[in-house]
Structures are given as C-alpha cells and as structure tokens.
Amino acid sequence: MKAIFHADKNWGIGKNNALMFSLPKDMKFFRETTAGKVVVMGRNTLCSFPGGKPLKNRMNIVLSPEDINEDVVTVHNLEELFAEVGKYPQDDIFVIGGASVYRALLPYCTEALVTKVDADGGADVFAPDLDADENFELISESTPEEDNGYVIKFCVYRNKKIR
To answer: What are the tens digits of pLDDT across the range 50-64?
Structure first.
C-alpha cells in the first residue's frame, strides 16, 4: 500500500475540503499512477470529488462509520479495510486522503508519493511531516519544475519499518 498526495511547504493538503492548488502536472501524475488501481479514502475526500462521485477506472474504497453508496466499497474500520485491500496486490493500493486517513494508514504504507509545492496554501488540514518522521526517508526527488505558476517536486518517501 502506498500513499499519494500533494503538500504545501507546511505539509498542508487541503482547505475547505478542496485542494489548495490547481496543478495539471500533479493531477496527470495522480491519474496515471492510480488508473486501474485501488484508491482508499475517507468520506470527506469522496464528497470533495465532483458530484461526490467516485473516481473512474479505479476501485474506490471508503473508510467511513456509515455506509456511503453502491458506487464504492465502504469499510467501517481498519480491520474491514485490511480484509478488503488484502484481495488486491499491495502495490496497486493507494491511500488518497484525507488527513485522518493519512494519519491512520501511513504507518502501513511502504511508500508515500508526495508532490511538494513550494508555497503556503493556507491549509486547514495537514498530512504528517514525513521529513520529521524517523520512520520515513526521502529516497528520490525530481528536479523542481513549474506547474501552473507554482514550483513543485515529485518526491518518494520509503517507510523504513516496512521492507
């Protein structure tokens, strides 16, 4: 299982239940990386999508105390989640948010694919700071590039506790 998200320089990931930046290169990376795969999210993340509809061409699993709808697989706790994701190859599972789901699942992720944005997006929700987390190490980062007026880097962090 892997996590994927973009974060501002304060590890902010969202504001008002939406993304803080419009980043076409990052969105393309997200689409290409998760297409045909399994995405795991919380209810608020699902609600933030257009029309509250699941992402197309992916198996959408929502971690929520209440059932969502027939278009997604709803799991109510981590035990149910791990039973469900156990049906798929681990490299095909991507945690896509939000903040509480990242906090709960990052310890179980082998990697985190983080697009770092060199800006302050005024976030109201944050991902854990992987640079400060002794269990994660930065194993690669791209050359900085421009994306819709922002400087971004594609980074890969590895969870040192999972081999």
So the answer is: 888 999 999 999 999
Give the pLDDT band of residue 34 (cuts 50, 70, 90): very high
The correct answer on CATH 3.40.50.720 for the domain covering 2-159 is: no
DSSP state of 64: -
Total number of residues shown for the chain: 163
pTM of this prediction?
A: 0.95
Map out the domains of the chain as residue ranges: 2-159
pLDDT band at 121 (very low <50, low <70, confident <90, very high): very high
Which residues in 8-149 belong to E strands, given as ranges? 12-14, 38-42, 59-63, 73-75, 93-97, 111-117, 125-126, 136-141, 145-147
Q: How far apart are CA 75 and CA 65, in angstroms?
A: 8
